[in-house]
Amino acid sequence: MKNISKRIFALAALCTAALLFVFSGCADDPLENNLENSDELTIATRGGDGGSPYYFYDHEGEKIYLSLNTEHAFFSAVEPRLSADITQRGDKAVEFQSDNGDKKQHAGKQGVNRYSTELSFEKGLSDEQYLELLADIGRQNKDVLVAPYFNDQYGSKIGLSNFFYVKLKDENDVALLEKTATQYDCVIVSQDEFMPLWFTLSVTEASELTALESANLFHESGLFVAGEPDLMADIALSNDLYYAQQWGLKNTGQYGGMSGVDIKAEQAWPISTGQNIIVALIDQGVDLDHPDLVANKHSLSFDCQTGGTALQSIRGNHGTAVAGIIGAVMNNTSGIAGVAPNCKLMSISHSLSSSVTNIRQQLAAGINWAWQKGAHVINCSWGHQTALSGSYITDAINNATTKGRGNKGCVVVFSSGNDLPFTTVKYPATLPNVIAVGAVDRTGTRSIWNSSQASNYGPELDVVAPGTDIYTTDRQGSVGYTSGNYDPSFGGTSAAAPHVAGVAALILSEYPDLTSSEVRYRIVKTAQKLPSYAFTNPYTNPPGTLLSEARNAEVGYGLVNAYAALSPVPYVLYFELINANEQWKTFLIEIQSTDGGLLSYQDSFTLSTNQMYTARYDLFPGNFRVSAYAETDFVDCEYNFTVVKGGSLRLSYFGNSNTPPYWGSPWFTSN
Amino acid sequence: MKKISMLFCAGVLMSALGAAFTACNNEPNETEDPETKGVDVSFTEYSLEEGVPGEEISARWVNLPDENNTLLVINSDEELKKYVEGDYPEIDLTKHTLLLAYGYKGTEIHSVSVEGLRKLSESKYKLNVELVMTFATRPDAWYVALITDKLNENSKVELNVSDGL
Q1: Could you tell me the pTM of the whole model?
Q2: Could you tell me if A362 lies within 8 Å of chain B, comparing CB atoms?
Q3: What ipTM did this prediction achieve?
Q4: B3 touches A at CB < 8 Å
Q5: How many CB pairs under 8 A join A and B?
Q6: Which residues are A612's β-sheet partners?
C-alpha cells in the first residue's frame, strides 16, 4: 500500500511481460511457476495507451474502467483516529466506521482490528499530485492503509477499501490461496459460510498493491475463478431507476458536476417528504396517470380556459415535466424521485400560449381557484415582463399569499425567466410576496444555455435551484418531449422553480403553522452560498425587521437547501440593554454575524434612567458581534459571542455619574 | 392589441387584393416595386425528423453558429454535413438550395410557421417566419429548413421573425 507513485511506473513497465506470461500457458504447475516468477505475475491494473493511466476491475469478463477521484481517499487504521500529519493534509474526515456497523473491522489472521474512514482533499489536485500525496502519507504513517478513490463511468464517487474477494476453482485450492496471499502480503479474512469457494482477503501495511490491484492480480493469474475488489459507493436513499441522474437532488459529481451542488434532498427526506401538502401547478396540465405521478394525484383539477374541473385537461408537455420535479413517487424502483415525493399534485391547466385572449383573467382564476380549494403551495413556471404584468394577476397572487391556508398564506413560487438580452427577472417573479427562482447548472453556476438563453436575475431574485439537464417525467406515449415516459434534459427556470416549490412542501409538512412569509424567510435564510459567487450584504434593516441576508445579483441568496430549511432553528437570543446612566439616552445596536455577514439586526431606542430595553432575536448557530453605541456620549461597546442553542446577552451602560462614561462588561449566557 | 392587429391585417389584405386586381392577372413584375412586394418563391419544407411520428429523432442540427434568428444558405453536401448529425433525408444540392433558419427563445415555442419566401430582386430574398410563443419558462429553439430551386451564389436571404410579443 506504500509508494503508490513508484509502483505505478513499475506496474506499467511490467504490464506487457506479465500479460505475455500469463497467457502463454507455459507453466505445468501454475502455482509453482507463478509464485517463482512473482514479479512477472504483476497484472496490468494500471497502464494504458501512450502512458495514460487507467484503472479497471473485471465484471463477468468485461473490464470496467475507473478514473481517479482526487478529492477523497480511504484510510484504515488500528485506532479510530488519524494522525495530525494526515488530517492536516485533508479538508474533512467522515466518521470512522467498520464494515460491521459499529463493530471493529477485522483485517485477518494477524488479529489486528481496524477502523476505516474517508478523508476529503482540496479540489483541483492533478492525478500525479494526488498519488504523490497518498504515497507520502503512506511513507509517513506506516501503520495506516491508504487507497485512492475513483469515479465510475457515470462520474459517481467510488471508494476502495482494503478488502478484496477471491473465488477458488476447487475447494482444495485453499492452500494455493494461502500461499498466494502470503506471497503478496495479503491475509485471508474469512471464508463465505454459504458459498465456500468465496474468500475475503485484505491487503496489509506490508502489501505493495492496493486491493484493486490485488484483485486483478489474483483474477488474471488464472489460478482462481475470480478476483474482485471491495468497492464502496454512497448508498442512495431512493431506489428509483433514474435517481442517480438526478444531480439536483444528490450531486455526486456525475457527468462533470460538482459534488455537493444540490438541494440536500437526501438529508431532508428523513425529516419530511411533503406528507399532507397540496402543491398546485398552474401550468399546461399534468399527465396524472403517469406511473410516477398517479399515486400523488389530487382529486381536484381545474381548466383555466374552460372553467371545467375534469381531471387530465392537458394543453401541453410542460406541466408533466414540472410535476415530476415536485412530486414524483419515490422508491417505486422506476423513474425518478420528486423533491416532495409524498405531496399531492393539483393540476390547474392553461396552454400558456401568447395567442390566447383573456389570459390574465384565466391565470388569475387558476390562482384563486387553487388557494380556495386548499392548495398549500402554488408553482408557476411561467412569466412575461409585459404581456402578463398588471394588477389582475397581482391581485390573485396577493389573495393566495394572504387568504390561502386559513389566512396563513399559500407559498407562491415563480420562475425568473431565461431571456437574453433582457436579463431582468420576469413578472410575476418580480413581486415581493412570491419566491423568485433562478437556475443553476450542476457546477453551481448560473445557467447559461447559449448567447440567447440564460437564467434571468436581478434584485428581485430570491434563490436559485437546479435548472439544467433535469431528469423528470414526460407525458406517456407518443406525445411529450420524448417518445418515452421521461425527459432526461428538461431545463430552464421552469425546472428550478418546482425544486423550490417542493422544498416549500417539505417545510409546510413539518411546520404547518408557518405563514407563507415565514416559509420564504426560511428558504432565503438557509440558502447555500455558492463558491463561485461573492455574497455581500449591502442592505441595512429598518428597525424591527429581522431579515438581512448576504446576496449576489446573479444567484440571489444562494442555492436552496432543503435540509437546512427544515432544521429546528432559529434559536432565540434574549437581549437586554440597561441604561444605568442618570439621563435619557438614545442607543444604537447592531448584531451581526461574523461568519460571512449572513445576518444583521439593527435597532435604535431611547431609555430613561435605569430603564431596560429587551428584545428577542432569532439566530442560527454561529458567531456574532454586538455593537452598541450611546449617542451624545460617543461611547462604543463591541462584544463577540457564539450561539450554539441560543442564550441571553446583557449590556449595561454607565454614564454621567461616572467619568468617563463607560459600558460594563457584557454578560452572555449560552443555553 | 390583437384587435388592432387584426384590423390592420384586414386593411393590408384589402389593399393587396386591390393591387392584385389592378395588375389584371399579369405575371408579377419584380421591377415594379421589388423591395416591398417581390414575388413568391416556391419551396418545400425539409425536416430532419422525417419518419414515424413519435419515434426518436434520427438526425439533428449541430454546430450551428451561436447566433439568434439566423439564416444559413446551404448549397453543397459538404456544407450540409457540417450541420447535421445522424442520418438525414437526402437533398440534391446540385439542383437545389437549402435555407436553414433557426433561433432561440427563453420561453417554450407553441408553433413555428413559414409565412412566405419572397424574391425581392435578382439576388435578394426575404423569408418570413412566425412563431407562436407560450409563457412557459423553458428555453426552446426553433428551426425552419426550406428546399428551393438553386439560388445564385451571391444571393442574400433576409430573415424576418415575428413572435407576436
Answers
A1: 0.65
A2: no
A3: 0.74
A4: no
A5: 105
A6: A578
